[in-house]
Amino acid sequence: MSSILFAGVDIGSTTSKCVILNENKEQLVFHRDYTLADRNESGERVLNASLQKIGASRNDLCGIVSTGYGRKAFLCADKAITEIIAHGIGTAELYPDVKTIIDIGGQDSKVIEVDHGMVVKFEMNDKCAAGTGRFFEVLTNRLMGVEMDELSDMIAAADAPSQISSMCTIFAESEIISHLSEGQKKENIIAGVGWAIARRIVGMGRSGRIPFNSQIVFSGGVANNRSIAGIFEQLLGKPVTPSVNPQSTAALGAAITAVNEYKK
User: Fold this and answer.
1) Distance between CA atoms of 174 and 151, rounded to whole angstroms?
2) Quick one: how far is CA 75 from the chain centroid?
3) Measured distance CA(104)–CA(111) in Å, rounded
4) What's the average model confidence in pLDDT over 160-174?
5) Could you tell me if 64 and 78 are in contact, meaning their C-beta atoms sit under 8 angstroms apart?
6) How far apart are CA 190 and CA 139, in angstroms?
7) pLDDT for 89-129, tens place per residue?
8) Whole-angstrom Cα distance, residue 79 to residue 261?
9) Hey, what's the torsion of the CAs at 113, 201, 229, 119, to 10 degrees?
10) Residue 49 and residue 16: Cα distance in Å, rounded?
11) Tens digit of each residue's pLDDT (9 = 90 or more) over 21-70
């Protein structure tokens, strides 16, 4: 490789991601894989796979910054930053006018207020499955056999979303079984789960006095479900923009940090 490169590695609870940039902060590659029990190995795998995709080697890297749950376990990183900071930096790079980030990952959810990429305040749920991708996956896939990539179309087809009042996975499961036994359509039940998740996250943000100022950007794996963005729009009365490649923003923020550290 003729240019110098910088890597951001986001080791999350469910998946690990890597973004590689050149010195002009142009993204050359994004790679994602499942997170292993060994968080360091997870980081190594996504970094090596990313380098292989662009025909580069470790010698081409002038900086590596890690983020996510496993950031401190990734031994070859030059610096580690929190995923909250990384999301702020990465999202602002893609959407310079962003003021609010709603991020729903596999096992956590966050609402982040930002100003020019700097985090002002945030609220985060990482203690239980409520309001996470895992909550969605367990309830819709296990109980109804619906895959994650089918959810958006099914929510869009709902005509009367079912009421899901509990955010405890066990109790919500009982509600869904009851709805199914009553003959309610799967589309309406799945839409009900989507509304329950969105209400939970909006409530979490408001409890932390986050004003949900526009521009609002939706990221994380659940943001691939465009219908959930529509539910947030109805709840907030404001446009919500699903991020491009929504699982990459924290890794992008880490990679940008690597570039900035090098240029200091």
Assistant:
1) 20
2) 23
3) 9
4) 86
5) yes
6) 9
7) 999 999 999 999 999 988 889 999 999 989 999 999 876 76
8) 9
9) 10
10) 12
11) 999 999 999 999 999 999 999 999 999 999 999 999 999 999 999 999 99
